[in-house]
């Protein structure tokens, strides 16, 4: 563990956006084993990489001897957080949200330790303390502590009210009260004294610190983490193919690994501080070495390896690296059927082979239809023997022999054909 205090390490990593009573919180953390929580609402059947910073932050607290609670929002997930959203969320039914809760419980459990003594982690669900709460009790005992004037003044709500359109519904407006109630309940049942979350949660978190003071008479604290941004201004965690998810069923380990491998140089060192457990001094040394070395930096490869191993374990990392190496070298012999399934899922452009069309069509048409180039470009590549099918170069004489080139007997695992045109264009065909 670092010689720095926890908050010193967070500051060195750029992990603190806002804190309530910094000096008091510093003393509180240094003098006690603190119970803290972070909430994760089930808005899909998987968390995405935007959730990694708070998940890993819970782990960092645990490494310093504190007890993390991962709150899965079975109740708040039914309402929807309006914070800095352009429009009202679609409300999902109870059964759908309950299914998502179970999957997200499983995901968060992979990042924190549930068997390490007094600071073992727990997963809690806010539906447990809201399910049986009647509306009159909630309004009288909880709602009376909130000033509508102050709630409207919160930036996350104010933006929705000021924006043209539908504004904000009463349902979403009450989200702040529900999240604040979570903090009060966890303080009462688990002696929880700290809530963390993204910087867009600041208004909700401070609402919780105030409600806990009013209802429980206890001093509690809040801390927010910066929302991750990319240096070029584009949205973090999005690619042309969509969101990068933590679930291997939604984003394959290979595609996940490639996302981190392709991070811009300007972001790589900060992302190492956010998303890995390498010490700040180690990361600074990586940056210094990259500046001194001519050629491609090492930071992206280290980042991709560290984060993929955290999320998909050693097995996922090994598979991602094996696929990456095979595509670079053209040697496909070591790729398993599961590796090709990852490529088919989201690793490469892919399409099913039309066997009837192959009988009468030309390879130039097949590859053009797969966006590997126009007819002339494909024909030129065939003339130069610059088209490879499963590692075998084919020439222009094969243009009318598509059925032979793509015969099942020539496939890998009786199903796959990886076509490479030139140095960079790939397409996966499957039977």
Please state how the strands of the largest beta sheet are arranged side by side: 1-6-5-2-3-4
Question: Percent helix among the residues?
Answer: 40-55%
Rg, please? 26 Å
Output the number of helix runs: 20
Cα end-to-end separation: 51 Å
Biggest β-sheet: count, sense, barrel? 6 strands, mixed
Total DSSP E strands: 13
Strand content: 5-15%
Compute the average pLDDT.
91
- Contiguous low-pLDDT stretches (5 residues minimum) are none
Assembly state here? single chain
Structural class based on helices, strands and sheet pairing: alpha/beta
What is the overall shape?
Answer: elongated
Q: Secondary-structure map with pairings?
A:
Blueprint: H1 6-13, E1 18-19, H2 22-31, E2 35-40, H3 52-63, E3 67-72, H4 94-108, E4 122-125, H5 127-130, H6 135-141, H7 148-153, H8 155-162, H9 170-173, H10 175-190, E5 192-198, H11 202-216, E6 221-225, E7 238-239, E8 242-243, H12 253-261, H13 265-275, H14 280-292, H15 299-329, H16 337-347, E9 350-352, H17 355-360, H18 363-369, H19 375-383, E10 387-389, E11 392-394, H20 402-405, E12 416-421, E13 425-430
Parallel strand pairs: 2-3, 2-5, 3-4, 5-6, 9-13
Antiparallel strand pairs: 1-6, 7-8, 10-11, 10-12, 12-13
Helix pairs in contact: 10-11, 12-15, 13-15, 18-19
């Amino acid at each position: 563990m670092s010689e720095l205090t926890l908050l010193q390490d967070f500051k060195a990593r750029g992990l603190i956006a806002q804190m309530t009573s910094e000096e008091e919180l510093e003393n509180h953390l240094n003098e006690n084993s603190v119970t803290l929580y972070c909430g994760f609402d089930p808005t899909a059947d998987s968390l995405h990489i935007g959730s990694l910073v708070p998940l890993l932050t819970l782990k960092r607290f645990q490494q310093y001897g504190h007890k993390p609670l991962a709150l899965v929002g079975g109740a708040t997930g039914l309402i929807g957080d309006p914070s800095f959203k352009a429009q009202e969320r679609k409300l999902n039914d109870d059964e759908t949200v309950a299914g998502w809760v179970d999957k997200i419980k499983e995901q968060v459990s992979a990042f924190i330790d549930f068997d390490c003594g007094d600071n073992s982690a727990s997963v809690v669900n806010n539906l447990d303390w809201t399910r049986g709460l009647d509306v009159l009790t909630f309004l009288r005992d909880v709602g009376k502590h909130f000033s509508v004037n102050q709630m409207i003044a919160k930036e996350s709500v104010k933006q929705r009210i000021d924006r043209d359109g539908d504004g904000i519904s009463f349902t979403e407006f009450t989200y702040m009260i529900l999240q604040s109630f979570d903090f009060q309940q966890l303080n009462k049942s688990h002696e929880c004294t700290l809530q963390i979350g993204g910087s867009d949660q600041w208004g909700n978190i401070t609402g919780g610190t105030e409600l806990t003071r009013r209802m429980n008479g206890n001093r509690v604290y809040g801390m927010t983490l910066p929302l991750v941004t990319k240096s070029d201004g584009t949205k973090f965690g999005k690619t042309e193919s969509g969101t990068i998810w933590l679930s291997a069923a939604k984003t394959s380990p290979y595609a996940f690994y490639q996302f981190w491998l392709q991070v811009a140089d300007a972001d790589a060192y900060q992302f190492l501080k956010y998303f890995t457990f390498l010490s700040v001094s180690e990361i600074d040394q990586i940056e210094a070495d990259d500046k001194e070395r001519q050629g491609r930096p090492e930071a992206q490869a280290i980042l991709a390896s560290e984060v993929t191993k955290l999320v998909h374990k050693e097995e996922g990392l090994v598979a991602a690296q094996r696929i990456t190496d095979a595509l670079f070298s053209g040697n496909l012999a070591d790729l398993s059927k599961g590796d090709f399934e990852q490529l088919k899922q989201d690793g490469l452009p892919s399409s099913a082979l039309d066997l009837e069309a192959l009988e009468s069509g030309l390879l130039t048409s097949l590859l053009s239809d797969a966006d590997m180039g126009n007819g002339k470009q494909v024909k030129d590549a065939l003339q130069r023997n610059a088209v490879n099918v499963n590692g075998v170069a084919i020439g222009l004489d094969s243009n009318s022999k598509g059925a032979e080139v793509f015969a099942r007997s020539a496939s890998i695992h009786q199903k796959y054909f990886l076509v490479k045109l030139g140095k960079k264009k790939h397409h996966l065909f499957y039977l």
